[in-house]
């Protein structure tokens, strides 16, 4: 029964029932439980991006991505992707879904505490996901777009979705690119930059709820 219905019943009893009989403790417990469930439902994110200032108290999905931009990537838009998902939700079945037109050569490189895993088309399927589950994947991803002398690396949407709600997750993206390029801009937050040996790196590490799209824009030095 909805909470509104419960309160309507409580406050519309006929006056001839007075003096009132105290509501049993278990009845109030049920009302409080219903109120808590409704508050949870109202709090469920429906996809709007929220950047979290601090991590949630409970362990949440950690999505790590390492991408390599090569000279060939500048010509055809394909980058090499290494991806790991940690602290997956404990469910009987789950999947990781990629854009069919922008992914190829998907391989599962390792998995822990998952009953079975396999690649199916443009998805990675998982069954019997246990506690502290982890899976790592490699693939080629067409994510680099050349426009007006600039290269835009577009990633996402990253999301942790269950039924109609979205829940907290940590997204960590590290991009390795040639030193003759420079990072011009990044969103939704500024990337941390560094150079090591003959390569440059840009990294974004954030906690989010909802659908996250990341873009990094590069140009020639």
Overall number of strands: 15
| Overall 3D shape | globular
Could you give a short account of the major beta sheet? 9 strands, mixed
Kindly give the count of domains: 2
Low-confidence stretches: 1-21
The CATH architecture of the largest domain can be given as Sandwich
Kindly state the percentage of residues in helix.
10-25%
Using only C-alpha atoms, the radius of gyration works out to: 24 Å
Write the SSE topology.
Layout (H helix, E strand, L loop, with lengths): L2 H9 L13 H19 L6 E3 L8 E8 L2 H6 L1 E9 L6 E5 L5 E18 L2 E20 L1 E4 L2 E9 L2 E2 L2 E2 L2 E10 L2 E7 L4 E5 L2 E11 L2 E9 L1
Parallel strand pairs: 2-11
Antiparallel strand pairs: 1-14, 2-3, 3-6, 4-6, 5-6, 7-8, 8-15, 9-10, 11-14, 12-15, 13-14
Describe this structure in words.
There is one protein chain. The protein contains three helices and 15 strands. The protein has 221 residues and is an alpha+beta fold. It has two domains: 3-43, no CATH class; 61-220, Immunoglobulin-like. The protein is globular and about 70 Å long.
Short description:
The chain has helices spanning 3-11, 25-43, 71-76, and strands spanning 50-52, 61-68, 78-86, 93-97, 103-120, 123-142, 144-147, 150-158, 161-162, 165-166, 169-178, 181-187, 192-196, 199-209, 212-220.
Which tags fit this structure?
221 residues; nine-stranded mixed β-sheet; disordered N terminus; alpha+beta; four-stranded antiparallel β-sheet; 2 domains; 3 helices; globular
């Amino acid at each position: 029964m909805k909470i509104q219905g419960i309160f309507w019943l409580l406050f519309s009893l006929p006056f001839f029932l007075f003096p009132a009989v105290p509501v049993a403790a278990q009845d109030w417990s049920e009302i409080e439980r219903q109120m808590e469930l409704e508050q949870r439902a109202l709090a469920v994110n429906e996809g709007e991006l929220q950047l979290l200032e601090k991590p949630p108290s409970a362990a949440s999905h950690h999505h790590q991505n390492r991408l390599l931009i090569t000279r060939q990537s500048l010509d055809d838009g394909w980058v090499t992707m290494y991806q790991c998902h940690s602290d997956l939700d404990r469910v009987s079945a789950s999947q990781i879904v990629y854009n069919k037109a922008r992914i190829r050569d998907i391989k599962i490189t390792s998995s822990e505490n998952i009953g079975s895993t396999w690649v199916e088309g443009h998805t990675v399927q998982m069954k019997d996901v246990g506690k502290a589950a982890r899976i790592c994947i490699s693939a080629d991803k067409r994510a680099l777009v050349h426009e007006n002398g600039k290269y835009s690396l577009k990633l996402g949407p990253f999301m942790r979705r269950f039924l109609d709600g979205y829940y907290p997750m940590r997204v960590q993206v590290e991009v390795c690119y040639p030193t003759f390029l420079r990072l011009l801009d990044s969103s939704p937050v500024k990337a941390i930059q560094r150079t090591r040996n003959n390569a440059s790196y840009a990294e974004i590490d954030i906690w989010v709820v909802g659908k996250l799209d990341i873009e990094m824009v590069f140009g020639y030095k």
